[in-house]
From TrEMBL:
<feature type="transmembrane region" description="Helical">
    <location>
        <begin position="213"/>
        <end position="243"/>
    </location>
</feature>
<feature type="transmembrane region" description="Helical">
    <location>
        <begin position="263"/>
        <end position="289"/>
    </location>
</feature>
<keyword id="KW-1003">Cell membrane</keyword>
<dbReference type="GO" id="GO:0016020">
    <property type="term" value="C:membrane"/>
</dbReference>
<feature type="compositionally biased region" description="Basic and acidic residues">
    <location>
        <begin position="436"/>
        <end position="449"/>
    </location>
</feature>
<keyword id="KW-1133">Transmembrane helix</keyword>
<dbReference type="GO" id="GO:0009245">
    <property type="term" value="P:lipid A biosynthetic process"/>
</dbReference>
<keyword id="KW-0812">Transmembrane</keyword>
<keyword id="KW-0472">Membrane</keyword>
<feature type="region of interest" description="Disordered">
    <location>
        <begin position="419"/>
        <end position="449"/>
    </location>
</feature>
<dbReference type="InterPro" id="IPR043461">
    <property type="entry name" value="LpxH-like"/>
</dbReference>
<protein>
    <submittedName>
        <fullName>Metallophosphoesterase</fullName>
    </submittedName>
</protein>
<dbReference type="GO" id="GO:0046872">
    <property type="term" value="F:metal ion binding"/>
</dbReference>
<dbReference type="InterPro" id="IPR029052">
    <property type="entry name" value="Metallo-depent_PP-like"/>
</dbReference>
<dbReference type="GO" id="GO:0008758">
    <property type="term" value="F:UDP-2,3-diacylglucosamine hydrolase activity"/>
</dbReference>
<dbReference type="InterPro" id="IPR004843">
    <property type="entry name" value="Calcineurin-like_PHP"/>
</dbReference>
<dbReference type="Pfam" id="PF00149">
    <property type="entry name" value="Metallophos"/>
</dbReference>
């Protein structure tokens, strides 16, 4: 493979989700995006920028229809569109529609409107680009997600399940977000998978919206819940004559602590009493809900998840593409918001991640307190080039400070021991003609502690 200035170089980004009602219109990374586009404007490479779906959050515009949504975009982000025009004067910019901006495939006028800003809109599910003697397959990836799959992509009247969630939940969150004590509700679009939304809402209510006096009154009880549960059970055994509690020994230890000991004793007694009542009521309620859950499962009411995040559908789709077109070196997609590289039979499955804020769940150190969701940014562009050792995939990180200091309270830091996320991007990977050199699943930023 040659390494000359004429060799094509592809920069790929996806899942910017720009736009939406009210607070969703705020772009946290606009400064970084403009700087990235300015850099491409001056490159001497034979480069092409590919925006691989969900550039815009058109689903989240619920008060505007059709191409009128484009007017809202250009009015809100004039600097962005002028920079697209300037960058597009220097290098080709190709835009593929995703599910959130599927309107782009539904109205031909979008093609000419975007062409005014030197953006080539391709109203297709996928595109192929040459790289040396090989090719790259690009698609957004929503077709592999049953809840966001279109039977007739480009039909403005088709609305998969994911549309209703975003129109009814995400958009509404953008409209209500600034009513809270803090402007956090708009970040619901950063919660993936969506099954985590209830836990996230509980967390933000407890740490952000709850009356502070009530929150600090409840924290000791929730922290000591498990200890109190054990005390309540032992007290029940003591009353039943099955086991005798070492009350005198415990009291002697607490007496040595003075006022602190008295406070601990009081808390344990109150907590144990409350916990005992909860256990008495909770145990039968648990079995009732468990039986209801089994009944629901038998009828298959919730057979599918709201969001499909696992990599398996994309591995299968990539294998099909590689089998149908053996010259394909890379299957490049987005949609799941997780930057990763996976080697498949000597070829690469590449996910371009997202420019949205990402939320990482951290459980508290003890008790029944809600988990904490640490925010971070992992802005990146995937660079695919024809290198001497093969087709190379490199993640170029765009620096942006994480918002943890502003969005995570001292209480949340204390209860999670400050375990902030340290996201990293995949290493350089290469597709060679002989032996694959990429490692399996390089996404080391799993949303687990």
């Amino acid at each position: 493979m040659s390494d000359t200035a004429a060799d094509p170089v592809y920069y790929v980004i996806s899942d910017l989700h720009m736009g939406g009602d009210d607070q969703l219109g705020e772009i946290d990374f606009l400064e970084e995006l403009l700087a990235f586009l300015e850099r491409l404007e001056t490159t001497d490479e034979n480069a092409e920028l590919i925006i691989n779906g969900d550039a815009f959050g058109l689903w989240e515009y619920t008060e505007t229809e059709g191409v009128a949504k484009f007017d809202r975009l250009t009015e809100r982000y004039p600097d962005l569109f002028e920079q697209l025009r300037a960058t597009g004067d220097s290098i080709p910019i190709t835009l593929l529609p995703g599910n959130h901006d599927s309107d782009l495939a539904a109205y031909d006028e979008y093609v000419s409107r975007l062409a005014d800003y030197n953006v080539d809109l391709v109203q297709e599910m996928s595109i192929v680009r040459p790289i040396g003697d090989r090719t790259i397959h690009f698609e957004h990836g929503h077709q592999q997600d049953p809840n966001n799959r279109f039977r007739d992509f480009g039909n403005p009247f088709e609305t998969p399940l994911g549309y209703f969630y975003n129109a009814l939940v995400t958009s509404r969150a953008g409209q209500l977000s600034d009513r809270g004590r803090f402007n956090w509700l708009k970040d619901v679009q950063a919660v993936t998978p969506t099954e985590r939304v209830p836990n996230w809402l509980l967390s933000k209510y407890f740490y952000r919206e709850m009356n502070p006096l009530l929150r600090y009154a409840v924290i000791p009880f929730l922290l000591l819940f498990y200890v109190s549960a054990i005390v309540a059970v032992l007290a029940g055994l003591d009353v039943a004559g099955i086991w005798t509690m070492p009350v005198e020994r415990t009291d002697a230890v607490l007496d040595q602590l003075g006022l602190v000991g008295e406070a601990v004793h009081f808390l344990l007694v109150v907590n144990a009493a409350i916990t005992g009542m909860i256990l008495l009521v909770g145990i039968p309620v648990y079995f009732v809900f468990r039986d209801v859950g089994k009944t629901v499962d038998r009828f298959g009411v919730f057979e599918t998840d709201l969001t499909v995040d696992p990599e398996a559908p994309y591995v299968e789709a990539a294998r099909e593409v590689f089998a149908d077109r053996p010259e394909t070196a890379i299957f490049c997609y987005g949609h799941t918001h997780r930057a990763s590289v996976t080697e498949i039979d000597g070829r690469l499955l590449v996910n371009t991640g997202t420019w949205l804020k990402r939320l990482h769940r951290r459980d508290v150190v003890a008790g029944l307190l809600p988990p904490v969701f640490y925010p971070s940014y992992q802005l990146c562009a995937v660079r695919i080039s024809d290198a001497p050792d093969g087709v190379a995939v490199e993640y170029e990180e765009i620096e942006k400070a994480n918002p943890s200091s502003e969005e995570i309270t001292r209480t949340e830091r204390l209860l999670t021991l400050g375990r902030a996320p340290t996201p990293t991007l995949p290493d350089r990977a290469v597709v060679t003609d002989e032996v694959p050199s990429a490692r399996h699943d390089m996404d080391r930023d799993a949303d687990r502690p």
